[in-house]
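User: My instructor asked us to take a sequence, write out its structure as tokens, and then describe one feature of it. I'm not sure where to start. Here is the sequence I was given:
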Amino acid sequence: MMTSDMQGNEVTNANCESLDAYEQAIAAFNLYHGDPIALLDRALAVSPDFPMAHIAKALMLALSSEPAAFEPATSQLSTAHNLKKNSRERSLFDAARMLSSGHWVKAAQTLNLHNMYFPRDLLALQTGHLLDFYCADSRNMRERIARAMPPLV
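Assistant: Let's start with the prediction itself. The structure tokens for your sequence are:
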């Protein structure tokens, strides 16, 4: 089943309940408030074949920079590997795989390209922004967000 998130990006294999939990998780991640992992677990309990929930969880775990989180992040990606994914989900999956393998700069570069095609992907924007911060790429911290904004007229 194909539906869209709040930014208008299509998501695969989500129903209303799992998409709602996913959206709450993304909001919690954006606001640094609440438990986005528990919300993603709720989304996956309802829709275990929902690739964006697996990918988002892997990204969040890997971004924690805790060595103990890399194995669960990799496990999430292993589960998502064979799931049906649209082009956006495949692109984010690739970035998550790089990040969970410790290739932070390459993951940030992949997210730059991803956001050229999906400029309203809030999960990718925030993940890339955090990677820019972690990698001390102050120029891209500014430019990544500026590229996603509509042009001023």
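For the description part of your assignment, you could build on this observation: The longest strand covers residues 2-4. Try explaining in your own words what that tells you about the chain.
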